[in-house]
Amino acid sequence: MLVAPSILSADFGKLAEDVKAICKGGCDFVHVDVMDGHFVPNLTIGPVVVEAVSKAATKPLDIHLMVENNSFFVDLFAPLKPEFISFHIEEEKHPHRLVQKIRGLGIRPAITLNPHTPPEAIEFLLGDIDMVLLMSVNPGFGGQKFIASVIERAQRLKVLIEKRNPQCLIEVDGGVNDQNVKALKAAGVDVVVAGSFVYKHPEGIETAISALK
Ligand code: DX5
Ligand code: ZN
Fold it and tell me: Of 164, 157, 48, 93, whose CA–CA distance to 172 is shortest?
């Protein structure tokens, strides 16, 4: 299992240190939650802070946009050269066009689905993207309860991916811990995002990351 800790659960008073700790602790990607206070009822960080994160990180960035005006935010973050930028399908009128734009900027495009959105909604985009991010909580906050129906969505998505683009990764975000990670793996999930489990683990970040792996 690849692990992408979410820095939303980090201590922003010592952000660089907390980013270095997950990289040293064996993570695969640094998951960055960008919220605009419109698409979701919370507001997080912009390119100034994410630039500091990217300087501290020794692993590639996985930027999860939870915003209106996706295209504008893609332009803001593209100069930081993240590995992935994902946007919510529920908030995009022209997802195919935006995928081409992200790819054209040299970034791997990914699409995020809210807990109620069926995988079939993006069947005809799978051939053009490198990852699907399935939300297992309502986007907006860390530390929420895992919504178990994501397992069935992952299984259904896996079937579509095998048919349309077997290289495409499946990522799950929200409420992931050492209890539900096995079921996610069995359902075909490649990458888990974990915020509170990693940053608040009583035995530390490295133990938390290896437990998920
Ligand atoms: C929620 C974010 C998640 C969140 C995960 O909108 O996308 O990345 O921070 O945090 P946990 O693992 O605590 O649910
Ligand atoms: Zn996220």
Answer: 157
Q: Rounded distance, CA 35 to CA 139, Å?
A: 9
> What are the DSSP calls for 68-86, one per residue?
SSHHHHHHHHGGG--SEEE
Is 195 close to ligand 1, i.e. is its CB under 6 Å away?
yes
CA of 55 to the centre of ligand 2 (A): 20
Give the residue, out of 3, 8, 112, with the most ligand 1 atoms within 8 A of its beta carbon, to mutate for a pocket test: 8
**What pLDDT does 25 receive?**
98
**Domain CATH for 62:** 3.20.20.70
Mean pLDDT for back-to-back runs of 10 residues, the chain (213 residues): 98 98 99 98 98 98 99 98 99 98 98 98 98 99 98 98 98 98 98 98 98 98
Domains contained in the chain, number? 1
Q: Whose C-alpha lies nearest to ligand 1, atom 4? A: 142
pLDDT tens track for 33-65: 999 999 999 999 999 999 999 999 999 999 999
Best CA proximity match to 17, nearest among 189, 151, 199, 161: 199
Report pTM.
0.98
Tokens of 206: 């490295």
How do residues 182-209 score in pLDDT, each as one tens digit?
999 999 999 999 999 999 999 999 999 9
> For residue 143, which atom of ligand 1 is closest to its CA?
13
CA of 192 to the centre of ligand 2 (A): 10
The environment of the single-atom ion ligand 2, i.e. residues with CB closer than 5 A, is 33, 64, 173
Looking at the CA of residue 174, tell me the nearest atom of ligand 1.
14
Domain range for 149: 2-212
